[in-house]
Write a structure and sequence with these properties.
The strands form 2 sheets. Strands 3-4-5-6 form a 4-stranded antiparallel beta sheet, with no helix packed on it. Strands 1-2 form a two-stranded antiparallel sheet. It has 7 helices and 6 strands. A hairpin with a 2-residue loop joins strand 1 and strand 2. Helix 2 runs antiparallel to helix 3, helix 3 runs antiparallel to helix 6 and helix 6 runs antiparallel to helix 7. The protein is of the alpha+beta class. The relative contact order is 0.09. The termini are far apart. It binds zinc ion. Zinc ion binds next to loops.
């Protein structure tokens, strides 16, 4: 039980609550937040707590109902899954765009994250081709579809082509594949990533000489 003082237009009062958020969005540590200030809004029946992290001393704002049911906790913690080391080495730009697209998606920016995934695919495919000794000038100056057609692996080419189609649906006014959505785009983009990862792992393994 945490006892705290809060203020409303009538002045200072005391109350208690059972729990507060525990994870600081700034330093990502589990912390016992200090309640530095609490304001009760009598119109909306909500508490706003100004909480200081005991680890990093940054402030978060926790909003809950008069029954202490959580409403919001800002800044929001936004998670993403980083690209693997081998993929990030192949295409650092892909890794960054992929990360930003996930952050957008996990922040509910669902109208723009699909475009981000489509852009991530473009960087991944072009860097993959350049690594596979295709002419950098040609690859960088042609369309994504032209680049995809250069891919030797039938599997990567086929799946990447579909990702590009679904990615275009996320970008253009008219959607052509009406039975497919963002989750299909992500599934197939992840498939392309895995195929490329497998190839990179295969090449790394092949370089090991028998001793
Ligand atoms: Zn902190």
């Amino acid at each position: 039980m945490r006892y705290f003082d809060y203020y409303d237009e009538n002045g200072k009062h005391s109350s208690s609550l059972n729990s507060l958020p525990k994870l600081c969005s700034f330093c990502n540590t589990s912390t016992a937040f200090e309640i530095r200030y609490c304001r009760y809004n009598t119109d909306k029946h909500i508490f706003n707590f100004f909480l200081e992290c005991a680890e990093c001393n940054r402030f978060s704002i926790y909003t809950c109902s008069h029954l202490f049911e959580p409403i919001d906790f800002i800044p929001h913690k936004v998670c993403f899954t980083p690209a693997s080391e081998s993929i990030a080495k192949l295409s650092p730009s892909f890794a960054e765009i992929y990360k930003q697209s996930q952050l957008a998606e996990n922040s509910n920016l669902l109208e723009i994250c699909g475009m981000g995934y489509r852009k991530a695919l473009e960087f991944l495919i072009k860097d993959y081709l350049i690594k596979n000794s295709e002419s950098k000038d040609k690859v960088l100056n042609e369309t994504l579809n032209q680049s995809i057609q250069r891919i030797a692996s039938e599997q990567i080419k086929t799946v990447a082509e579909r990702v590009a189609w679904l990615g275009n649906d996320q970008t253009h006014y008219i959607k052509k594949h009406t039975d497919k959505d963002l989750s299909d785009l992500k599934l197939f983009l992840d498939t392309v990533i895995k195929y490329i990862e497998l190839e990179l792992n295969y090449l790394a393994a092949k370089q090991i000489e028998k001793k």
